[in-house]
């Protein structure tokens, strides 16, 4: 496992999460454009990582590194090709794949299939819980209940 690479990815995640949390607070002190600047910088670095090491795997950066890498990719909404390639080549867990799949579909103007993204339509909603179970996700009703807390 590449501990140095894992640490870099974890630090990138911490930076972006800290900024997103600060921006979500009432009376935010930071301008919104900062998150876009961070995402652009992270996009550049994510592509550098892929070019140098290939698409990350648990073997390369560990389970926590993969969770951090997934979150960074999840927020690369203006680079759908990166998101799609990572869906194909990274060994994200099934839940992460479900979230990223829905994100890609929405970014392409399509309906999501797992119901992981709020306020967007779901394809074949009557079978969504069956698809969610296949990806180790709780029912849509339970998910929405938890999110409203």
Explained architecture:
The protein has helices at residues 3-24, 33-53, 58-74, 80-89, 94-107, 128-134, 140-147. The protein is mainly α and 149 residues long. The chain has a domain at 3-92. Helix 1 (3-24) runs parallel beside helix 3 (58-74) and helix 3 (58-74) runs parallel beside helix 5 (94-107).
Features:
single chain, 149 residues, mainly alpha, 7 helices, 66% helix, globular
- The low-confidence parts are none
Give the N-to-C terminal Cα separation.
38 Å
Q: Largest sheet, if any?
A: none
Strand residue content: under 5%
Category from helices, strands and their pairing: mainly alpha
Q: Give the overall form.
A: globular
Question: Total strand count, please?
Answer: 0
| Average pLDDT score | 94
Question: Which helices and strands occur, and which strands form pairs?
Answer:
Blueprint: H1 3-24, H2 33-53, H3 58-74, H4 80-89, H5 94-107, H6 128-134, H7 140-147
Give a short synopsis of this structure.
By secondary structure, the protein is mainly alpha-helical.
């Amino acid at each position: 496992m590449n501990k140095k690479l894992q640490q870099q990815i974890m630090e990138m995640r911490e930076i972006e999460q800290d900024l997103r949390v600060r921006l979500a607070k009432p009376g935010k002190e930071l301008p919104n454009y900062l998150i876009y600047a961070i995402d652009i910088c992270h996009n550049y670095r994510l592509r550098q990582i892929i070019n140098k090491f290939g698409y990350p795997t648990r073997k390369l950066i560990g389970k926590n590194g993969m969770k951090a890498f997934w979150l960074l990719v999840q927020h690369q909404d203006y680079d759908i090709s990166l998101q799609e390639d990572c869906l194909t080549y990274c060994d994200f867990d099934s839940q992460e794949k479900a979230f990223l799949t829905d994100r890609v579909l929405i970014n392409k103007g399509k309906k999501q299939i797992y119901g992981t993204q709020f306020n967007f339509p779901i394809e074949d909603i009557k079978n969504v819980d069956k698809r969610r179970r296949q990806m180790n996700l709780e029912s849509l009703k339970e998910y929405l209940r938890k999110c409203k807390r």
